[in-house]
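2024-03-11 09:14:02 DEBUG pipeline.ingest accepted 1 chain
2024-03-11 09:14:02 DEBUG pipeline.ingest length=161
2024-03-11 09:14:03 DEBUG pipeline.predict start
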Amino acid sequence: MRGVPPSPPQPEWSWWGDGVPGTPSIIIDLGDQTARFYKAGVEVGSSPVSTGREGYSTPSGNFSVLEKNASHISTLYGDYVDAAGEVVMSNVGVNRDKRPRGTRFRGAPMPYFMRVTGAVGMHAGYLPGFPASHGCIRLPRAAAEKFFFNAPGGTPVSIVH
């Protein structure tokens, strides 16, 4: 996928919720870097995550899925590219990194994005094994897709320490 660094082998995630009835909810644990998916209060899925690194903390609290977009592109983080689409500056923030002359901003892909508050959401992304994002909650692609299709808008999301 263009603009996303190649991922190392993704950590294990589990799903046993197909066909399980009940109202969904999600708990993100910042301390152990996991996401757990529940239906009617019963855990039916779990995944490692990578949350906000130092200076870009992921907020804790009780939220809900506000918006869903399977092919979301960031408007805040990405790369500055030249006219040919070649990366001139990578991993930039539009509010912190000055755009070099002759370049344009290309936002980072955030597949299976589910916004929970402000600019923070869950989406498929790189998992290095520690908090590394700009505040979002990154999941392995297959886990992000499974969570996305099982969490309708309004699904409660608790982010805890």
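2024-03-11 09:14:41 DEBUG pipeline.report Helices lie at 141-150.
2024-03-11 09:14:41 DEBUG pipeline.predict end
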